[in-house]
Structures
1.
Amino acid sequence: MATKSGTKCLHEGYKPTKGEPRQLPIYQSTTFKYDTSEEMGKLFDLEADGYFYSRLQNPTNDAVAAKICALEGGHAAMLTSSGQSANFFAVFNICETGGHIIASSSIYGGTYNLFGTTLKKMGIDCTFVDQNLPEEELAKYFKPNTKAVFGETITNPTVNILDIEKFAHLAHSHGVPLIVDNTFATPINCRPIEWGADIVTHSTTKYMDGHAVGVGGCIVDSGNFDWNAYADKFPGLTTPDESYHGITYTERFGKGAYITKATSQLMRDLGAIQSPQNAFYLNMGLESLHVRVQRHCENALAVAKYLKANDKVLWVHYATLEDDEYHDLQQKYMPDGTCGVLAFAIKGGREKAIEFMDKLKFISIVTHVADVKSCLLHPASHTHRQMTDEQLKEAGVDADLIRLSVGIEDVNDIIADIEQALA
Ligand SMILES: *Cc1c(COP(=O)(O)O)cnc(C)c1O
């Protein structure tokens, strides 16, 4: 049995037996064949389990989702076409027009826009909060129509660490689930469900894929949230769905209610499915996730220490550093390390930052993080350039913050590249 994460990376999800392919097959098929009309009808009524159309489900995708589910210690999971669609589905599955969510203001810029702008157009309000406030302060932001609380294990790009237990307690004492985006930590370094999170999301585009090959996302449900205990808040799960002859998800599917609804309603209607080809690449990435993450963390810590000791550097933020303000939370939630991403600023502000970045040799400027090759980005000029200075401040993104994603190259070469650019 696969008990350790490193073994799960290789053996969960797809388990071939006698004469079956050693590697996960790509079911490159839009549809699936049945012998009788009755068999097919049962699938449409959710009375039988099975595949019928790859806009809803595909066997390659499901094997990969099952692997991620096992890594996170969840009950059920699904792949989505991107991290954006994962976070959208995770919220929209339980929150409709007239609803409200609470999210940390330090989250990824794309998610900030999704929650603050696009969900707003759909009649869903989001209150962004400072995740470091004490629980009593955060409690003041709840409204009768609040449906979920959202945060990132390690925030992108500020690499702050979420106090998951505090957020879980806060959400649960108000009868709503905690959704945690675990993209940066990955289940190798942190499993939010063990700390009380109910739903975990991923941009698999980052470390899980790891090679900058395919955009993708994943939603994992712990199965732990008791929707029926707060039935009035979550009618989509606890009252009949007329588009499936009046079945009630919690009644019919129990712990599987949340993912079944997201698949049979949201995937059916919105179609943000990952292609099976991309799911295959994602699985290849997952097979070495535990090895890569460890190396990313070792390299990033060495680079963080180097930067910290350099007098051209203004500040470095990497929670594994002993004097970092998030070190205690790092020790509690991810003692083996955080991720390969760190944030720092060099003296001379915005101008010097850009000059430094342009001088780098193999560390490249790309709109990406968390893959095997080192890269960096200046959020104020790139990912977050749509934000006002006020919003940047609220998100904790200094105008001189450089986000460095340390890859798995030889660490001496990485440091040498930084050194020549600083000079
Ligand atoms: C990149 C990212 C996303 C969005 O994922 P895509 O796959 O680019 O859609 C969401 N959350 C976090 C933390 C990310 O880093």
2.
Amino acid sequence: MDYTEAFTSAVARVRAEGRYRVFANLRRYKGQFPRARWRTPDGDVRDVTVWCSNDYLGMGQSACVTESMKQAIDDVGAGAGGTRNISGTTHYHVELERSLADLHDKEAALLFTSGYIANEATLATLGKILPGLIIFSDALNHASMIEGVRGARCEKHVWRHNDVAHLEELLKAAPAGAPKLIAFESVYSMDGDVGPIEAVCDLAEKYGALTYLDEVHAVGLYGLRGGGIAERDGLLDRIDIIEGTLGKAFGVMGGYIAADAVIVDAVRSWAPGFIFTTSLAPSLAAGARASVEYLKSAHELREKHQERAATLKARVREAGLPLMESETHIVPIRVGDPVMCKRLSDALLDDHGLYVQPINYPTVPRGTERLRFTPTPLHDDTMMDELVEALEEVWTRFKAVRAA
Ligand SMILES: *Cc1c(COP(=O)(O)O)cnc(C)c1O
């Protein structure tokens, strides 16, 4: 086999579809979020405003987080030096797990090196722990959940996105005595819509299923203490396993699940993706804990975040740009074509100093390519003026579609 040719043509296929990815080389300015320095492909350096960060509240630059990380490095050094089992469990990990269990009002929590691994490892492991398990997975679940379900090597059914009637049909058709798990998300990150959590919990109760909820885009942002949508809606006790990330609103890195102690203990004992990998650096655990604890009482910051998102949505709608309906802090604008999507994004960056990454297949279905904006409490009115003006300019220049 001509290996080089195989790799070259794999890349060429992506290019031919107009969805070849180019990463923007950025360097943030601490203290000036969401400003950053962009190194262009030609080696120039230019200031830009970042509009697509998942550091939704700018916590990655907050002094309470960075100071605790520096302190942890001064106290114990850089890496954890082992897996959790072999010298990699530190005071920082234990404290963070306690903090997270408390956040979700659960008995226990378990850390993973990312939210992706938390989903992949936990779901795959549930398939081993529960013989004959049937998983019911929402059609728009994140790639990490899809990989986890695949790894569970059990029967699975995909229910139409947010369609509880379809979910019930599938549950009803399954053997009554079989163990079942319903896996879904609270905030869907590309459309900004919210899963029907209460209705899913009702069905889970009726059909004897466990519930598994990915709150990655909600933790830190919703609920009285930042516990997510389940907390906001008073449903924490009805979700068996909550999964979250420390890398988005918490601004650091890592992932976790929170659940009954016996569930956490079983996953801890069986999941290769937890067992056989070096644990998070203590400084990451320290920074994440500072962030989680800080956000437990940061009501005003959460309100400001919602206000900023609502304001941007209103501005985009007024400008007659094709805003996609979103119930949350995520502001997607439809483009509907991967080549156009990249062209608009390039022009915003090159000509306006505004960075928003094009979102193309396979992140979203073909034909729904979009620009996805994530305004934070630190995106002020002037930045929004600049953005909307620039969007109108590029939409007109490239004759992009205006209908939503
Ligand atoms: C980003 C994301 C993850 C993965 O979290 P990381 O900590 O970034 O690995 C999981 N689920 C959803 C829905 C996500 O968007």
